[in-house]
Structures are given as structure tokens and as C-alpha cells.
Write a structure and sequence with these properties.
The protein has about 575 residues and is of the alpha/beta class. The protein has 2 domains: about 250 residues, Metal-dependent hydrolases (TIM Barrel); about 200 residues, no CATH class. It has 16 helices and 32 strands. Strands 3-2-7-16-17-18-19 form a 7-stranded mixed sheet, covered by helices on one side. The chain has a 6-stranded antiparallel sheet with strand order 25-24-27-26-28-29, with helices on both faces. A 5-stranded parallel sheet has the order 8-9-10-11-12. Strand 8, helix 2 and strand 9 form a beta-alpha-beta unit. The longest helix has 17 residues. The radius of gyration is 24 Å and the shape is globular.
Length: about 575
């Protein structure tokens, strides 16, 4: 019998040998019982050997006055959406108590192919090569590259490639299955990807807005485990009843905590998982990560035990992560010291019993790994002011974004044309999606109502999930200039006023992320967003991040891709001009 793992822990627990470290004076929050106990935690070889008093150890840490929790999981996120390199993201996330993330790099893979995922894996592997790995990463293989066949992405990952990649050790599971229509329609290519995960015993995450009744049964029967995209409380309740894990999303562009909180009960709360999905640098710096999500849940009336479990033990049980998600003998010594169970203000973070963050600051430094595969990815055809001319006689379909969500409703607007172009009604802008991978010249044109922006144009090269350029404006020349700025900078966020004033923040890594330090990314993205707000963008919308979801055809109800206006419910293109 092999005892290399067990014997040192047993010897320490039985006080026949000293531990490597002991954390004294803190109040341990027990996620199994909800009770608190003032005990010490003794650690050996990165694992909790015992909980008690009087243990000897080589190092001692004082946690007096603090509550000790298991470090937090983010059950589903896209690191790219932080606009930070993996290394810079890790510094911020760890400082806020995050010890493990379930990361789906489908943004990068849609731009760069599997090399994009390899970049993320290698960047985090270089962190793991340190004496103490500050952040564990469970890397998912994107399931939908592209998300649908109705847009142009930079790569295509078919079922055969998916099976090959999943069979190795690089990927923990299959990323969110966004093509829920393909699943319920029995599409052989889509189901083959889920079958590959099933055969290999790897989890498959979900993305199923509006799926109910027979369609939900089919989706779950195909092997999907989780979901973060429900549209109503009734839908969440049905998914819970059918055995699905529901991810409570507290991100920059979408937050369903207030919807999920009243649904959590003593019987079902173990089926909820906290995640951020998409959270950008400014929010990470100013508001926090999963610590902020915990505070939000408790503020919504969720008992602290249920909230903490959703970020710890529930996630470990969902993904069958043995010895994770609790503070108990035999569990990983990944520990967060917080002030209380309301604010969850993080004071110290331990990874394997070693301090990795203190008072909101990471205790490790990094330099970004930037291979050529993720550079020089913006390739745009010839675009001029005339590229944005739209001629419609009487009535047009327009997108309207439901505030504080990613859902877009179709609204009809009366329009007039003059000189071969639309005269925009009040509070209506032109919306364009410009293909940027192959310089094909594709430009999808439409309208957005109710956003509030006026007096120029704004655009971004982050456009879920194919990541073409999304441009909004009421001035054709300014829209063309925005495209030029994004092309010149290798991607980014750009703003051009009709008077000629302009600003751009480059996203030089795949047009999605910046190689700049986190503080600079947070400051500059917040600055350009504030400027867009001054140009009229209404509250309820993140000026640039909401734009980034207007080209995502797997979220209801109507979206715009580089190939045209798309009805996400009927799963087909529709004309911009509507019948009167």
C-alpha cells in the first residue's frame, strides 16, 4: 500500500510530527454544518492535517478576529472577458479569495483556434511552475467554435477535433454547449461532441436560455450538467427540478443573483454555483470577484451558509473534485480569511497553506507570456463612410436591449430615407458588425434603439463569440474612423465624436485582451466607458460590454452578425426592413 500521501498527514494529526504551517486564532466556518468553531488549522504538504489546538508547526500565521473559509471557486468564466492576460487576471482574482476557476477560453479559440486555448493553458502552466501555484485552473475545451454557422469566426472546431483534444490531459471538460438548438434538433455533429465528453467521463457545461419542457429534457439527456442563462424564475425552478446545476452569474454585463436568491431553499441550495462568466478589469479592481458575488447573494437574503457553499463545496461536488471546497482534514489547505459573512472583505489568502495574497494584494508577480499566435489578429476589408449607408422606405426592425440583461427584443421603428441613406429617428443608432478575421468585406447592418448614444460612433473588437467588430453610431464617417482605429491598434475599444475628437484603448492580444498591467487596463477602460456614458449611453447598459453581446446569436431574441440580422428564436436571418 502506498503511504507517501497519507503517512505525513497521519503523523502530523497524531502530533508525532510537526506541521509545515498552522493558522491560529481564526474562526472556522464549517460548510458541512454551518457552525463556527475557534480552532487552529495545521497544514502538511499543502493539505489540512488536523483542526484543533496545540499543534506544532514550522510556520505560524495569526488569523485572530477573522473568519476562515475555503477559497472560492468561479464555476464558469472566460478569462479573456477581463481584458487581462491570464497572469494579470490571476493576480486580481487571487487577491479576492479565488483559488480555482473553471475557465472556458472560447473567445480566444474563436479567434485563434486551438492555439488560443493552448496559450491560456501555457500562461497558467507557467504560474503552476512556481514553488506555490496561486490559482488552479480547470480548462474547458470550447464546444461551439463558431457558436453558430450564421457568423464568421476565425476558426472552426469540429466533432472529430473536439474528441481528439478532449482525449488528452489539457482539458478538464467540454465548455458551455451554446448550440442548444443543435442539441434538441439531434444534430449529429453537435451530439458527437457531447458523446465524446461522456465517453471520457468529462463534464459538459451548458448554455440554454429559454429551454423548457421537452427541449430541456433532451438537453439534459444529452449529458449537459450546468446552466447560467435562464430567462425567468420559473425556468430556473424547472431546471433545478430536472437535476441541473444552476450557476448564479454575477458578471459585468449580466447578474441574476436577485432572481436566483428567492429560489434557494434548504432542499435545493446545494444545486447553485457562483460564477462570473464575464467580468472585466475595472470591476475586478473596483468591486472584486467571487467575494463580491457572495456579498451580493447575502444582501439578497440568502443565508451565509448557502451562499458560501455555492462558491465552495457545491462546485467541488458538481465537478467531483475530491478534497476541495471545505476546511477539514484531508482537504486542500486553500483558505481565505475574511472580516465577516456579509461584506466578505478578504484580508488574507492561503494556497496549500502558503500566503499568496494579503490585504487585497497578490504576493506574487508575473510577466505575460505572449506568443505570436495571439498577436496581429485584426484583418478588415476596405471600409468607408458609404459602407454604413442603409436605405429603408418606411419601417425597420431594431434591437432593444433589456436593461441589465443580455436579452434583446425586436422593436419596429418608423424611418425615412434621404439620398440613399436613413434619417435616424430620435434615440436610434446604426449598428454594424464588421468581419475582422479574413478581410472578407462582410458587414451586417441594423439599428439599435434606446441605448442613448449620440454624436459620433463607438466600437469594440470584443463581440461574443466570433469577435468581429461591433460599431454603433449616428455618423457614418465616425463609424468608418472607429473601424480604422480598431484595425490600426490590433483591436480594442474606440470612440470618435462627430467633432473629430477620438480615443482608443488597444487590445493587442487577439483583439480581446491587453498586455498592459491590470491597473492600467482598469483605469483606461473605465475612462473610455465613462466618456461613452457622457455621450449618452444610458444606465442599465455597460457602454462597451453590452455592445459586445449584440452579435451573439445564441441569446434571445434578435441579434446582428456580420452576415445580417438574425432571429435567435426562429434561428434564421430576417430582413432589416420590416413590412409596414
Amino acid at each position: 500500500m502506498q503511504t507517501e500521501h497519507a503517512k505525513p498527514l497521519v503523523e502530523c494529526a497524531m502530533r508525532r510530527a510537526a506541521g509545515d504551517a498552522v493558522i491560529r486564532g481564526g474562526t472556522i466556518f464549517n460548510v458541512f454544518t454551518g457552525e463556527t468553531e475557534e480552532r487552529d488549522i495545521v497544514i502538511k504538504n499543502g493539505v489540512i492535517a488536523a483542526i484543533g489546538t496545540g499543534y506544532r508547526a514550522a510556520r505560524e500565521y495569526d488569523a485572530s478576529g477573522k473568519i476562515l473559509l475555503p477559497s472560492f471557486f468561479d464555476a464558469h468564466l472566460h478569462v479573456e472577458s477581463s481584458m487581462l492576460t491570464p497572469e494579470a487576471f490571476a493576480c486580481l482574482a487571487v487577491a479576492h479569495g479565488t483559488g480555482c476557476i473553471v475557465a472556458d477560453p472560447h473567445e480566444l479559440v474563436n479567434v485563434c483556434g486551438v492555439e488560443g486555448a493552448e496559450y491560456v493553458g501555457e500562461a497558467f502552466a507557467r504560474l503552476r511552475a512556481r514553488e506555490v501555484c496561486p490559482l488552479d485552473v480547470l480548462l474547458q475545451l470550447p464546444s461551439c467554435v463558431p457558436a453558430t454557422p450564421f457568423e464568421t469566426s476565425g476558426a472552426c472546431l469540429d466533432a472529430r477535433s473536439t474528441a481528439e483534444e478532449l482525449s488528452g490531459e489539457d482539458f478538464f471538460g467540454l465548455g458551455e454547449m451554446m448550440n442548444y438548438v443543435g442539441v434538441t434538433a439531434g444534430d449529429a455533429e453537435v451530439l458527437a461532441k457531447l458523446d465524446a465528453a461522456f465517453r471520457l467521463g468529462k463534464p459538459a457545461d451548458g448554455h440554454a436560455p429559454g429551454l423548457r419542457a421537452d427541449a430541456l429534457n433532451a438537453y439534459l439527456a444529452a449529458g449537459v450538467l450546468t446552466d447560467h442563462e435562464s430567462l425567468s424564475a420559473e425556468e430556473i425552478a424547472e431546471k433545478l427540478a430536472r437535476g441541473m446545476y444552476v450557476q448564479v452569474r454575477c458578471g459585468s454585463s449580466a447578474d441574476n443573483a436577485a432572481v436566483c436568491a428567492p429560489l434557494m431553499t434548504a432542499e435545493n441550495h446545494t444545486r447553485f454555483l457562483l460564477c462570473s462568466d464575464d467580468k472585466h478589469a475595472a470591476d475586478l479592481v473596483q468591486k472584486g470577484h467571487i467575494d463580491a458575488a457572495l456579498a451580493r447573494l447575502v444582501a439578497c437574503g440568502v443565508p451565509p451558509l448557502w451562499a458560501v457553499r455555492s462558491a465552495t463545496l457545491n462546485v467541488a461536488q458538481c465537478y467531483r473534485l475530491r478534497g476541495r471546497g471545505a476546511l477539514a482534514p484531508g482537504y486542500a489547505a486553500d483558505i481565505v480569511a475574511v472580516d465577516d459573512l456579509a461584506s466578505f472583505r478578504v484580508r488574507a489568502v492561503f494556497k496549500g497553506g502558503v500566503p499568496v495574497a494579503e490585504e487585497g494584494r497578490a504576493l506574487f508577480g508575473t510577466s505575460p507570456y505572449l506568443p505570436q499566435a495571439v498577436r496581429d489578429t485584426v484583418h478588415v476589408g476596405n471600409v468607408t463612410a458609404d459602407s454604413f449607408r442603409i436605405c429603408i422606405k418606411k419601417q425597420a426592425r431594431a434591437l432593444f436591449v433589456v436593461p441589465n440583461t443580455l436579452v434583446t427584443e425586436e422593436v419596429r421603428v418608423a424611418v425615412k430615407s434621404r439620398g440613399g441613406d436613413v434619417v435616424l429617428p430620435k434615440d436610434v443608432c446604426k449598428l454594424a458588425v464588421v468581419e475582422r478575421h479574413f478581410a472578407s468585406g462582410n458587414i451586417g447592418l441594423g439599428f439599435l434603439k434606446g441605448y442613448g448614444f449620440c454624436g459620433g460612433a463607438m466600437g469594440i473588437s470584443v463581440a461574443h463569440d466570433s469577435h468581429n467588430l461591433v460599431v454603433l453610431g449616428d455618423d457614418n464617417a465616425a463609424m468608418a474612423r472607429v473601424v480604422a482605429l480598431l484595425k490600426e491598434s490590433g483591436g480594442g475599444m474606440a470612440l470618435v465624436a462627430s467633432d473629430g475628437a477620438e480615443e482608443v484603448f488597444p487590445l493587442d492580444v487577439a483583439g480581446l485582451m491587453s498586455s498592459a498591467p491590470a491597473e492600467e487596463v482598469a483605469r483606461r477602460t473605465a475612462h473610455i466607458a465613462a466618456r461613452a456614458r457622457r455621450m449618452g449611453v444610458k444606465e442599465g447598459y455597460d457602454p462597451f460590454m453590452t455592445l459586445a453581446f449584440l452579435a451573439l446569436p445564441v441569446i434571445p431574441h434578435i441579434k446582428l452578425t456580420d452576415r445580417g440580422l438574425f432571429d435567435a428564436d426562429a434561428f434564421c436571418f430576417v430582413p432589416t426592413e420590416a413590412e409596414a
